[in-house]
Amino acid sequence: MSTHHKLPANTLSVHRGVFGAQISPVLTIHSGDTVEVSTLSGNDNDLPDKDSGFIVSAEHTDVLAKVPRGEGPHFMTGPIAVAGAMPGDELVVEIVSVELAQDWGWNLILPSHGTLPEDFPQKRLLHVAIDRKRGVVKMPWGLELPATPFFGIIGVAPQPTHARLTSDIPGTFGGNIDNKHLVAGATLHLPVFNPGALLSIGDGHALQGDGEVCLTAIETNLHGTIRITVTKNTGLKSPWAETPTHVITMAFDLDLDTAARSAVRDMVRLARSLGNLSPADAYTLTSIAADVHVTQLVNVHKGVHVTLAKSALRI
């Protein structure tokens, strides 16, 4: 029988800015359990003014005051240890639900960051209203857009050779993936590098386009439920995901072309495995039926993901 756990974001459960195997787990579960988790987003200088009408939760204020800031800007809830997970295993993270958790979000343009720093040298911080009942983001110039909330960060502790890694940079452990397809109903597959896997989650987004070009999405607090399962001894090397209709490979590198080649190569391998295809047939199928997307251009290591319809693999 699986167990349902609750993991709110507070001073006992949040770590800031880093991934590492040395961070002690705040919750231990068993394979197949579900975890109801909340996440925070926004450092002191990202918060709205007190007279804005937006509410900053007491938990958020406490974490800012009491939890030391790490190398990166993100808040991660966790780590969650999974009993029996060992290096060489695969952690399957099913995103059961994702919900907006507050009535505001924020977007930041920062000098020397983003895709066009030479065009936008001035800092700009926007606070936007979120109508949770209607599920829309309300931009200051009057535009309303449907919210599609997802956790930008889902990652395990990286290889033990990496003592501490900034939360900014995604990698084979997952982390700051910022893949907008990882909404409710999606499943993320991650390699396990340490006993217990040590899964952390955060960086809530109300809305983001592929590329995340100005540096940030509509950043906000989220609440959701995930189901975590261990698959033993798969030897998975890099993350991949699936939705009800597609499989997705993803890769990250300083060089966008290198990331693209890695993501395509992973899709060829996945198509071979899932579709029982020869290498050449899998490569052809990837060329004629898969789509290559830029996930994000702003997390130091750029991200590329490749999507392929499950129907093309007859699954």
What does this structure look like?
This protein is mostly beta strands. It has two domains: 4-101 and 148-231, Acetamidase/Formamidase-like domains (Jelly Rolls, Sandwich); 245-313, Acetamidase/Formamidase-like domains (Endonuclease I-creI, Roll). 13% of the residues lie in helices and 38% in strands. Helix 2 (256-275) packs across helix 3. The relative contact order is 0.18.
Write a concise keyword list for the protein shown above:
nine-stranded mixed β-sheet, mainly beta, 315 residues, Endonuclease I-creI, Jelly Rolls, 2 domains, 13% helix
TL;DR?
By secondary structure, this protein is mainly β.
Write the layout of secondary structure elements.
Elements: E1 4-7, E2 14-16, E3 18-19, E4 27-29, E5 34-39, H1 58-66, E6 75-82, E7 90-100, E8 104-109, E9 124-131, E10 136-138, E11 144-146, E12 150-155, E13 165-166, E14 174-176, E15 187-191, E16 199-207, E17 218-219, E18 222-231, E19 240-242, E20 246-253, H2 256-275, H3 279-289, E21 291-296, E22 302-309
Parallel strand pairs: 1-5, 4-6
Antiparallel strand pairs: 2-6, 3-13, 5-18, 6-16, 7-15, 7-18, 8-9, 9-10, 10-11, 12-14, 12-16, 15-19, 16-17, 19-20, 20-22, 21-22
Helix pairs in contact: 2-3
